Each structure stands twice: as structure tokens, then as C-alpha cells.
Amino acid sequence: MEHDIELLWLPIDRVAALTDKSVKTVRRLAEGGSYVVLKRTVPSGKTHTTKSFVMADQELTNLEKAYCRRHRLKPVPMDKELMTVIETKYNSIFIVSYRKLREESHAG
After folding, report:
1. Domain count, the chain
2. Which residues, in sequence order, are CB contacts of 8 under 8 Å at separation 6+?
3. Does residue 28 fall inside a structural domain?
4. N or C: which end of the chain has fewer CB within 10 A?
5. Which residues of 25-48 are buried (b: 16+ CB within 10 A; e: fewer)?
6. Quick one: pLDDT at residue 65?
7. Residue 23: which of 31, 15, 33 has the closest Cα?
8. CA pair distance 60, 9, nearest whole angstrom
């Protein structure tokens, strides 16, 4: 993940998978104030769709990094977004998909 990113937003279904909860449970937790959720319009083939994203805390960020390392995935973000939260600006990214990293070939 980029070093100048201060807020990481993960798709709600990804948070459900990382925390071993259903999407419905994550939505309920968000409604109860356990997660901050924003909606963003993202590309989907030749069209666009609206997805819900959860602001990742340190625990979710660590789970995400470990999962991506273990499964050799590279997160694909939307463009970086500058967000203002209580008069403070934060560099943010929204992860929209994942790309499988190629296996490195070892000649020898």
C-alpha cells in the first residue's frame, strides 16, 4: 500500500471476509457505529455501480496486508482522494479490486 495514504477504504464484502462475518452483519455493525461506511460509484465493466466501503482501522489494515501477501494479491485502488474530516485533510484510497501477482521465475 502507498506510504502517503492516511485512510484506507475497503469494500464491505472484503471486510466481511477478513473478519469472518456476513456482509449483513458488517452492515449492522456499521449502522450501530462500529464502522464508518461511505458509498462510491466505481467502474464495473462498461458501466458503473455504487459500492459501500468501510474505513479500515489498524486491525483491518493488518488483516488486509497479511491476506494480500499470503494470496499474492495486489490491491487496485481508485484514484487517490483528498478527504476532509473535522477540518483535517487526509489522503485516502478506495480499493475496488485485486490483481494476482505473477510468480517470479528463478533461472538456475
Report:
1. 1
2. 1, 55, 56, 60, 61, 64, 92, 93, 95
3. yes
4. C
5. ebbebbeeeebebeebeeeeeeee
6. 94
7. 15
8. 10
